[in-house]
Design brief:
The protein is of the alpha+beta class and 141 residues long. It has a single domain, classed as Aminopeptidase. The protein is 26% helix and 32% strand. The protein is built from four helices and six strands; from the N terminus they run ααβββαβαββ. It has a six-stranded mixed sheet with strand order 1-2-3-4-6-5.
Length: 141
């Protein structure tokens, strides 16, 4: 059997099927920890017209909250919304049983913001062009 092309249109159900059918979770040897607490933490802030103006999107696994996205629309920056979002996400994660928070950010984004909130850089990848670095952060909750 030869695979000549890859389908770029894999849907969420197919991904779940792969995980279940081939027991990939069981092969991770975490005694189920990889699924704990297994909640997504997705928060958005809306203006008076109902438009989304800020948000944070996180996954949880291995008792860790991973921040995928933290965003505030430019016209709402400077109002502390990013601070409120991260604090609320950390609170929800801790209540769900998470013991650490992780994230990564590029040097042109917001490493100072995470340090301000008690995150510690544990890895800095500096192999990107134009002196761009990727910072990996962790914080005990």
């Amino acid at each position: 059997m030869c695979i000549e092309t890859f389908d770029k249109n894999c849907n969420e159900e197919e991904l779940k099927d792969i995980l279940q059918k081939y027991k990939l979770i069981q092969h991770n040897k975490t005694n189920g920890l990889i699924l704990r607490p297994g909640v997504d933490i997705n928060l958005v802030g809306r203006d008076s017209d109902g438009n989304v103006v800020c948000g944070i999107m996180c996954n949880t696994y291995l008792l860790i909250m991973y921040i995928n996205v933290l965003w505030v629309h430019e016209s709402y920056q400077g109002q502390g919304l990013n601070h409120r979002l991260i604090k609320e996400a950390e609170k929800i994660a801790k209540e769900a049983g998470c013991i650490y928070a992780h994230t990564s950010t590029y040097s042109f984004q917001s490493p100072d913001f995470y340090e301000l909130h008690g995150y510690e850089a544990y890895d800095i990848d500096d192999y990107f062009p134009d002196n761009i670095c990727l910072y990996s952060f962790k914080k005990k909750l």
